[in-house]
Specification:
Number of strands: 48
Strand content: over 45%
Distance between the termini: 88 Å
Radius of gyration: 33 Å
Shape: elongated
Largest sheet: 22 strands, antiparallel, barrel
Structural class: mainly beta
Length: about 950
């Protein structure tokens, strides 16, 4: 018995040993998973970085980080590995002797350092096509250095790189995930242009989207001080100005980045102060003291002061949680606003405004596969305006605008906040992002605009007069009616008033005001509006050479009684013939999506203010009332005469416009490592906003309603060709050409139809119909600290509307269009270089299309040259620690005169003429044709 028990114990021991060996062998054979996230020194995710994991036997596995900087290696054997990471604009990273165990999942955080070292780079490794990422452009590090510092010039450069936006809206800027204005360049860490245009995360059309990520700190102590100067001595004269404008703009500031707690928290602090002595150019036609029609061309100083303060911080709570925050404050004041072009100096008013924004975000790694992000944005803005409204305004259409400013005292206060929450989950070939955005705006606005009244004088017909203002009679003793301009009507009014003629006699002779308008009532109004947008997006990599994006967005808002809106999105990217281990040479992309444009709170403010009860508007065309000119007609008098008041309203069926956008593109590698992308974009928009003039009978009597309606259409087709090459880290080249055709029957909420009863006649060229655009940009970092950047822009002329300058149909809007003349002997025919026009078409006679005219084209070259002086060495003896950079940036290098859109009012003395220049992003605006900025920056 004892022998049996001993034998059983031995067998149990052997069985236990075998089980332990089997378990140990199984554990050794279990596959391991290794994950990580790559960020830069400021805590931002590094997208599309190349990650290489080298096994002990020398074999390699390669991965690419996603939009959150995440990477994952699966099915690994336990052991020791070497990890390498490389991304454009960053120093190469290597971590050796990493122990990966099969008993637990491994995760690593990697920080890449931005490098300014001038070194040779394998061109083939930099010029690559990527199946993911939507083909967007990413600018960081040295690529930001060659961009202009001036905000207007920087915005122009980024818009040129973004190319033409799809739809009516131009390129849009998003700062740290929230829509906003362009921040100062020294606070920008990274810029992404046109990323993933069909993602359900985006509410607006994806093309023309510029995403900006700002700095929140650094791993060391860094800083810069800078100064900026632009003076009229450096600039060329505006050819439309009577003399070289006295102009100067100066700015100075600093930026600091530092750690608070090493590897845990950091901060960024920036300050900038600007002062400008700019000018407004008045190009008008007025009357002298003898009531003779004379041109007026003068410059009026428009000084402005502003300062900006921003602060950002990041705090690594633990290895899985990061908290960042930023604060921005801007205060500015300006004098002599509201003048220039046709507006005389008497229209000037002063402004003061302040803007504060707060951004908070929290990123949390819930698990190796799940990341959550929460963001909060708050903005408070206050703007004041003060002007003289003691005298009525005088609007002589497209000749001059004089009299009082009609601003009086107005103040606008607005509070906006936005809450975002996104969760990103990766599993297998799926990267799923789910989230939502809640926005609220509260506006309190007080405005006494036009409480002093405005008289309007339009063109028309009148008897021909001689130099003594006597009627010219023909051989039959009859007068001849001829077209007269708005300024001629105004001149005749004043001349015959001086002569003591009666109002009836004055009108027979072609004088008299055409319209009087005035507002009265409660100047205060407040509006609140909320909107919500939620989405789910799945970026699914079905195969190594094929990915599919599927998304659905849901949106709704207050203040309009409609059902919620759903916006499906789908996109794909395919690299035919490409295997997992090779780089693609050809990528085909396509997408389709529905995009909504929410109804702005500004329309609600207008409709609530001028609802006929809170505040009244009067547009008077009755000669019996107009003949009291130049006296102001009090609102009480208008009520007593039963003059119709005008109210604004939102159409009962008003809804957000939506666009169906689709695109197909081909990306290909060309010889010499050029990448070419050819994209066809189609946009069809329905329910586009416009304004309508409606006459109705209300309980109080006869009244007129203006209405915001959403029954417009917009169609656009674009062919966009992008060519780019990153020669090295120190040299880039971009080129974009766009061929576009855009048709619509409205150009936005402020567009009135020429004939409210015939909206079909409005369908024609859109204001966005710019046929050709070409942008060339490049930068190079030459030896000895010299860098050069340039942007050249060429485009076709802008469309413009040709109108009669009269209100023939009595809708109080001077938007009537003429017809092409069929009988040149008909009285009133106006012959111009654009054709012969009949301003009073006969019944059934076809009017010219909307936006019939085409303005001058545009061509400009901007050039920036930087010279860096190394003043010291860092501790590693390889990177300069102190640097002084002298920059010279020239706008419109060739001094070409880019003329503005011509005046399109046939009743204007300036019809068909350009009265100014179009700027190319220069801070000097109209003060100069070519401007040269000098900047000095010290980095430490």
């Amino acid at each position: 018995m004892k022998l049996l028990q001993q034998h059983l114990r031995q067998m149990a021991s052997i069985l236990t040993l075998l089980l332990l060996m089997a378990w140990n062998t199984s554990a050794q054979m279990t596959e391991a998973t290794f994950r990580g996230q790559i960020k830069d020194e400021l805590g931002g995710a590094v997208v599309r970085a190349t990650v290489i994991l080298v096994c002990a036997d020398g074999t390699e596995k390669t991965n690419i980080t996603n939009e959150e900087g995440m990477f994952v290696f699966s099915r690994l054997l336990g052991g020791r590995y070497t990890l390498r990471a490389n991304a454009l604009g960053f120093a190469r990273y290597e971590m050796k002797d990493i122990l990966i165990s099969t008993s637990k999942s491994s995760f690593v955080n990697i920080t890449l350092r931005v490098t300014l070292d001038e070194q040779k780079v394998d061109v083939k490794s930099e010029a690559q096509l990527n199946l993911d990422g939507g083909g967007g452009i990413v600018l960081r590090g040295t690529e930001l250095d060659v961009l202009p510092d001036d905000p207007e010039e920087l915005a122009a450069a980024l818009k040129a790189l973004a190319g033409p936006a799809a739809g009516l809206a131009g390129p849009e800027f998003y700062v740290d995930g929230f829509a906003g204005n362009l921040p100062p360049k020294h606070s920008i860490k990274e810029i992404r242009i046109n990323p993933d245009p069909f993602s359900a995360e985006n509410d607006r059309l994806g093309y023309g989207r510029v995403e900006i990520i700002t700095k929140v700190g650094s791993t060391g102590f860094r800083g810069s001080m800078f100064g900026f100067l632009n003076d009229q001595a450096l600039n060329s004269r505006n050819p439309y100005a009577p003399n070289r404008a006295p102009y100067q703009m100066s700015a100075y500031g600093f930026s600091l980045d530092s750690q608070i707690v090493p590897q845990r928290s950091s901060f960024n602090l920036s300050f900038e102060r600007q002062g400008s002595h700019n000018n407004a150019l008045i190009s008008a036609t007025t009357l002298d003291s003898a009531l003779r029609i004379v041109p007026l061309n003068e410059l009026v100083p428009t000084p402005q002061q502003a300062f900006f303060l921003s602060a950002g911080t990041s705090f690594q709570i633990n290895k899985n949680n990061l908290l960042t925050g930023s604060y921005y404050y801007n205060h500015s004041n300006a004098k002599n606003r509201g003048i220039g072009n046709f507006s005389l100096e008497s229209r000037a008013y002063n402004t003061a405004s302040s803007l504060q924004t707060l951004r908070l975000s929290h990123s949390s790694i819930l698990s190796p596969r799940v990341v959550n992000e929460t963001g909060f944005f708050f903005m408070h803005r206050e703007a004041q305006s003060r002007g003289d409204s003691s005298t009525p305004g005088i609007n002589v259409l497209e000749a001059f605008i004089g009299g009082g400013s009609q601003i009086s005292f107005s103040i606008n206060r607005s509070d906006r906040w936005e809450l975002q929450n996104y969760t990103i989950w990766s599993k297998g070939g799926h990267v799923i992002k789910v989230g939502g955005r809640l926005r609220r705006v509260s506006i309190s606005d007080m405005s006494r605009s036009n409480f002093g009244g405005t008289y309007t004088f339009a063109g028309g017909v009148g008897p021909e007069l001689d130099e003594h203002d006597h009627i010219v009679l023909n051989f039959e003793g009859k007068s001849k009616l001829i077209p007269i301009t708005s300024i001629e009507r105004y001149r005749r009014t004043l001349v015959f008033l001086r002569q003591g003629l009666s109002p009836q006699q004055l009108r027979v002779l072609g004088g008299g005001a055409s319209q009087f308008s005035i507002a009265a009532g409660n100047p205060e109004i407040s509006v609140r509006q909320i909107d919500f947008g939620g989405f789910v997006q799945d970026n699914w990599k079905l195969r190594p050479n094929f990915s599919l994006g599927l998304g659905l967005r849901f949106e709704t808002q207050s203040n309009i009684g409609i059902t919620p809106d759903f916006a499906p999105r789908v996109s794909f990217a395919w690299a035919p013939g490409t295997k997992a281990s090779t780089q693609p040479k050809l990528v085909l992309r396509g997408g389709f999506g529905v995009f909504y444009d929410r109804i702005s709170e500004s329309l609600t403010i207008q409709a609530s203010r001028f609802n006929g009860v809170n505040q009244q508007q009067f547009f008077v065309a009755d000669n019996a009332l107009l003949d009291t000119f130049p006296s102001v007609i009090p609102p009480e008098t208008l009520v007593a005469f039963s003059a119709p008041s005008t109210a604004w309203q939102l159409a009962s069926n008003l809804r957000p416009s939506y666009s169906l956008q689709s695109s197909m593109s081909v990306e290909a590698m060309l010889p010499l490592n050029f990448i070419i992308t050819t994209t066809y974009i189609n946009v069809h928009s329905s329910h586009v906003l416009r304004s309508r003039s409606l006459e109705q009978i209300v309980a109080q009597g006869s009244g007129r309603f203006f209405e915001y309606a959403s029954d417009g259409r917009f169609n656009q087709n674009q062919l966009v060709v992008n060519l780019n090459r990153r020669l090295t880290k120190a040299a880039t080249l971009f080129a974009t050409y766009a061929l576009s055709r855009a048709l619509s029957d409205t150009d936005g909420s402020g567009t009135f139809a020429a004939d409210q009863t015939d909206l079909k006649a409005e369908f024609g060229r859109s204001s966005a119909d710019i046929r050709h655009r070409l942008t060339l940009s490049g930068s190079i970092r030459a030896p000895r600290g010299v860098s050069v950047s340039t942007i050249a822009t060429v485009r076709s002329g802008l469309p413009f509307n040709i109108t009669t300058g009269r209100d023939n149909n009595g809708d109080t809007i001077f938007s009537d269009r003429p017809a092409l003349a069929t009988d040149l002997s008909k009285p009133g025919i106006i012959v111009t270089k654009f054709g012969a026009f009949d301003p009073i078409p006969s019944p059934g006679q076809k009017r010219i299309p909307r936006n019939y005219g085409t303005g001058p084209g545009f061509f400009s070259i901007n050039l920036g040259i930087n010279k860096m002086f190394v003043l010291g060495r860092g501790n590693d003896s390889t990177k300069s620690r102190y640097r002084l950079t002298l920059s010279v940036y020239t706008v419109n290098l060739l001094n070409r005169t880019n003329r503005a859109v011509p005046v399109g009012n046939l009743g204007s003395p300036s019809f068909g003429r350009s009265l100014g220049i179009v700027g190319a992003g220069s801070s000097s605006g109209i003060s100069s044709n070519r401007s040269i900025d000098v900047r000095l920056r010290f980095d430490f």
